[in-house]
Design brief:
- The structure is a single chain.
- The protein is mainly α and 85 residues long.
- It has 5 helices and no strands.
- Helix 2 packs parallel to helix 5 and helix 3 crosses helix 4.
């Protein structure tokens, strides 16, 4: 069974920035799920629909680095909001 690291060693289609974005987004999605934040909650924080966020998380399109920053900021804000509850 190949691991993500094994696949990265042999791939040539993705740039280093694209791999960084995929890795980072994957880590952020894990954090969202671990903290019990729904796609709907995060999407609202980010100013987008839940279906748009689902497409982003599923990599139905390849996000720009700015979208990764927006996801990070939205996640951080949602974590702060949940602490106040």
């Amino acid at each position: 069974m190949n691991t993500w690291d094994d696949l990265l060693k042999n791939q040539t289609a993705l740039t280093k920035e694209e791999v960084y974005i995929i890795d980072s987004l994957s880590s952020l999605v894990v954090q969202r799920i671990k903290r019990g934040i729904t796609q709907a909650e995060l999407a609202k924080q980010m100013g987008m629909s839940q279906s748009q966020l689902a497409r982003l998380e599923n990599l139905d399109y390849f996000p720009e680095i700015t979208m990764l920053y927006k996801y990070t900021a939205g996640l951080a804000a949602q974590i702060e909001n949940n602490k106040k509850i």
